[in-house]
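Figure 3 (text version): structure tokens given as input.
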């Protein structure tokens, strides 16, 4: 098995090997190679201690980015490469970062501290693949499995709970049974994680191939990140236009807009105000009068709390506000919408309304024909 590494990564491995140290690329880049994807970055792990790594690259700029945990960043021909010493992590009192680390000369011990088997593999040219925990087979089967005891892995770093389902969405994988059970049990620990990390993982999850499936499977985990999603789960709409509860409708709608962050966020939040605005007529027909206005207010609060970029917040709030607006086909009305939203904003609104329609009862999905004609 051989992988075509970028010249800087290959050169870094060669330098460390020539100095007498084991060195491998490790983690997500190895997984991506096995999936036939082009890795976005290349992390290197080595038996060399940080000071020994710095000596190997003494002719290059070296940044002590995480030297306390064994990581230095080497700028090799303009390319930053993170090089980390094999290590064993200590306790995780904050459920996110190790309190301390112990350096080791064992690649296996280093691999044992990693999150999932698919991210615990290492590769070096001429040496091939090192896979101590069955990661290659799990990648082949599309399985996300924790390294060792899954509850231990999640309690060490609670962000791994959200990362697990993010990988499930982006790679369209499934969680191994014991890993999944532990993720559900450990979900409340996500409250300890910074909102910036949560929003970054949530954004990637929403734009993944399996986003709708993952949303339906893990509402308890996602409701820790956005508590306002909780009341939507199982909330029956009692309306002939709908065949799903509010949350399932939302998950279906997410899958039916392009994987662009502000569109997926708009679909996630477009009906978040429905549980608060529900009313039931005497003959059993349900209504959600004013739900767009309430959803807009909640979306604004949620996005600000999760510290999404200002432009993203503005785009999402605008789409939620108008997601159920009646768009007439007359040229005059279309010009008004174009003046209000701009050309791209109008196209985004059409995409959101298509997604919303896709989550209706089949008999009411014909509205898409009118939306298509508006785009023309």
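Below: residues designed for each position.
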């Amino acid at each position: 098995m051989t992988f075509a590494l970028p010249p800087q990564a290959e050169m870094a491995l060669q330098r460390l090997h020539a100095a007498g140290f084991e060195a491998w690329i490790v983690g997500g880049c190895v997984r991506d190679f096995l999936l036939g994807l082009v890795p976005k970055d290349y992390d290197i792990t080595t038996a060399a201690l940080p000071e020994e790594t710095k000596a190997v690259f003494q002719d290059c700029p070296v940044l002590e980015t995480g030297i306390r945990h064994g990581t230095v960043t080497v700028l090799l021909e303009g390319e930053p490469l993170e090089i980390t010493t094999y290590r064993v992590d200590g306790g995780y009192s904050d459920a996110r970062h190790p309190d301390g680390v112990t350096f080791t000369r064992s690649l296996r011990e280093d691999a044992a501290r990693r999150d999932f088997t698919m991210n615990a593999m290492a590769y070096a040219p001429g040496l091939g693949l090192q896979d101590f925990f069955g990661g290659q087979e799990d990648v082949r089967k599309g399985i996300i499995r924790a390294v060792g005891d899954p509850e231990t892995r999640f309690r060490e770093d609670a962000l791994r709970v959200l990362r697990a389902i993010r990988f499930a969405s982006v790679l369209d994988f499934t969680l191994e049974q014991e890993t999944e059970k532990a993720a559900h049990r450990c979900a409340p620990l996500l409250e300890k994680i910074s909102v910036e990390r949560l929003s970054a993982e949530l954004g990637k999850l929403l734009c993944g191939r399996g986003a709708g499936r993952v949303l339906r499977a893990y509402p308890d985990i996602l409701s820790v990140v956005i508590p306002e999603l909780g009341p939507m789960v199982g909330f029956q709409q009692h309306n002939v236009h709908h065949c799903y509860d509010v949350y399932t409708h939302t998950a279906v709608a997410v899958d039916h807009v392009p994987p662009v962050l502000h569109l997926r966020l708009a679909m996630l939040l477009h009906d978040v105000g429905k549980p608060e605005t529900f009313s039931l007529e005497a003959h059993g027909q349900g209504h959600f009068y004013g739900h767009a206005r309430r959803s807009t207010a909640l979306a604004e609060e949620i996005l600000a709390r999760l510290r999404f970029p200002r432009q993203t917040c503005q785009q999402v709030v605008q789409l939620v506000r108008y997601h159920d607006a009646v768009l007439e086909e007359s040229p005059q009305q279309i010009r008004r919408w174009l003046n209000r939203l701009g050309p791209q904003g109008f196209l985004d609104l059409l995409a959101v309304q298509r997604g919303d329609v896709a989550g209706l009862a089949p008999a009411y999905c014909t509205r898409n024909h009118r939306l298509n004609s508006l785009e023309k």
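The chain is about 50% helix and 10% strand.
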